[in-house]
Amino acid sequence: MQAKLNVIVGAVAIALSGTAMSQELVVKIGHVGPTSGAIAHLGKDNELGARLAIEELNAKGVMIGGKKAKFELLAEDDAGDPKQGTAAAQKLVDSKVNGVVGHLNSGTSIPASKVYSDAGIPQVSPSATNPKFTRNGYKTTFRVVADDVHLGGTLGKYSVKELKGTSIAVIDDRTAYGQGVADEFEKGVKGAGGKVVGREFTNDKATDFTAILTSLKAKKPDVVFFGGMDAVAGPMLRQMKQLGIDAKFVGGDGICSGELPKLAAGTMGDGQVVCAEAGGVEGESKKSMDDFKAKFKAKYKVDVQIYAPYVYDAVNVMVAAMVKANSAEPAKYLPVLAKTEGYKGVTGTISFDNKGDIKNGALTLFTYKGGARDQIAVVR
User: Which of 70, 275, 294, 318 has its CA 20 to 30 A from that of 215?
Assistant: First the structure.
């Protein structure tokens, strides 16, 4: 009798266990960024933002369609390379992810967006700013930051009106991001009545800029704009000092990191560099951002570089759409994600327009003092 009772109890336990398991919904979120190579510090920053969001969502016990969701992060490295980016995207598609946050660079995000579109998987980039990213008509493509039309144009006007630049030189790294933001900067300069005295280019792996800087030095620029990333901007600043080019150095979000002073090896003067981050918080949102940065540092023992908070928000806005749609299936929650309106994130309020761009995107202008970023203003 006891043996029979044990069998019954065991069967009930197995049944209950099976029921509990059936009530758990596994949701796979992909993240892609350059976690190797020259800008690995930026890719790792982004990935940590995703990990923090996933960990907190699991701790909350989020319910989707009547089931408790268990979120899993599938993280891939694209090394900032377009070919590796599309390979990483295909790997995530094959893994049947429910959504993707990334990529970091425009040059990887743009080709990857077709892979996700073909598979019907939503992609939210926290940092790709090239306008083309959302101009291909893909219904799966979104971003939570302002684009380069706004960023580059604003910096161009700022260089003329506020920095009083009368002879402005432009350099780009020939990536989708670098060239795109430099083009918009040049338009902004000319629109504000300024003069571009020279345009040069390098690449995103270069370390020697002597030739292009010597060419520009002869034109006596008072502002030098660089479209590219901090790993190149740091050595460029060092070589500008060596050549005696005493000009303001301006750049977009790619150079606007906490790492830039180290990469420039102490050659930056206070106020010499002006950069813009494609996002911005003010008023009540500033406390949310400050709280996030404190929480991030306490957990990971490192400061936020640039976009970890935007990755964090991108994950959460995607999951909010799943909750509202009562489904983590891409085809079911995608229309809800597209209609996101007034989502309160740590980076501010997120609403998407019909292209997948954030509405009323902000920019934050920074300079550097004492080796640390110092906020100048938030511009919309």
Answer: 275
Residue 248 half-sphere exposure toward CB, CA atoms < 13 A: 22
Same domain for 21 and 133 = yes
Q: Are 140 and 159 members of one domain? A: no
Rounded to whole angstroms, the Cα distance separating 241 from 379 reads 30
Residues 188 and 265 in one domain: yes
| Burial zone of 228 (CB within 10 Å; 0-12 exposed, 13-18 middle, 19+ buried) | buried
**Residues 182-216: tens digit of each pLDDT:** 999 999 999 999 999 999 999 999 999 999 999 99
CA distance 152 to 221: 18
What span, in angstroms and rounded, lies between the C-alpha atoms of 314 and 332? Answer: 18
Q: How many residues does the chain have?
A: 380
Q: Which amino acid is at 284?
A: E
For residue range 208-247, list pLDDT tens digits in order. Answer: 999 999 999 999 999 999 999 999 999 999 999 999 999 9
> pTM (2 decimals)?
0.87
Query: Which of 378, 359, 330, 350 minimizes the C-alpha distance to 116?
Result: 330
> Does residue 85 belong to any structural domain of this protein?
yes
Strand blocks (E) in 56-96 = 63-64, 67-77
Give the DSSP letter of residue 131. G
Domain tally, the chain: 2
Domain holding 175, by residue range, is: 148-277
